[in-house]
Sequence to fold (358 residues):
Amino acid sequence: MSESVTHHLVEHQDIRRFAFDAFKAVDCTDEVADLTAYALWLTTIRGVDSHAIRLLPHYVSAVEGGRLNPQPNITIDDTAPATAILDADHTLGHVACLRGMRHAMQLAQTVGVGVVVIKNSSHNGAMATYGIEAANNNMIGLATTNAAPKVRTPNSTSPFFGTNPTCIAAPMLNEEPFCFDATPVPFSANKVKTYAEDGKTLPHLNVAADEQGNPTADPSLAFQMLPIGDYKGFGFLMMADILSSMLSGMPSGDNVSGMFGVPLSEKRYLAQFCIAIRISAFRDLDAFKQDLQKNADKIRQQPRMDSEVPVMIPGDPEKATTSERTTRGVPVKAFDMEQFNTLADRLKIQPLQPKDAD
Fold:
């Protein structure tokens, strides 16, 4: 991909600085600005662009519109030795989930496992941020969320559940944590939006369907997503809804509010679910890391069908992208750069500084 014509390269640290400045400009607390900027930066350098810095203008507008609380009173109620409920007070979901996972880790330090259910939350970006938070602290992290109805129910013409992503992450011996972050659909809805923005056709008919439920490769007609494995993928969506919506008492299924197409003054009442598992409560930590590392290395060394394509484990593409982007810089699409420059001018903050600027 040529970055010289359609992209600008930006130092990865500037992504985090720009996001922090933008949130501070709309009266977010230091904690809200810092944690959300960190989450967007991490997602950006990992190459999950559908949920990364490109969403910053939306989040800023949602703060200004009243949907997102820039100065929340976040409360955590410990309900049992290993469980807690976090009320996010309608702030950014990134803040709620980082706070939630960190509290789950505190519980796990004492009793071996911590479970935190989050209510009154909002869109929280990529789930990997929260699993990795636990893995970086020598724990297994699992996180999931509900989402607006976007996935066609098998043998129906309409959606009921959202894409409801789930992440699991664990520490490894010689490299950054293992991280599997996915939704049981081929693409996220935000990724389909990027295809539409780029004028690209979806790669096959198993990604999305139109309003009548007919599969389509035209991202502009994509009204709903298609679950992988039909009812099996649908089952994973329902599992995430049970863990997030049902445990928290927040709206579930087709009652979950939308991110786009509704007034930015309306709260979303989303829910998330975080688990931290202290590995040393079960076995020797280094032995666990070594066994996971051995399995990962053995998988990568399996015989290839195509000699030019490496055998990978989940998270390998993101690790490669992180290495490239922290070294060379982050490619920002020209369209997004225009949006960021407009935002910087409106908020009176320093814009992103392209490395390839004259």
Summary: The domain at 1-65+327-358 is CATH 1.10.1530.10 (Hypothetical Oxidoreductase Yiak; Chain: A, domain 1). The longest strand covers residues 113-121. DSSP finds eleven helices and 14 strands in the chain. Confidence is low (pLDDT under 50) at residues 1-5.
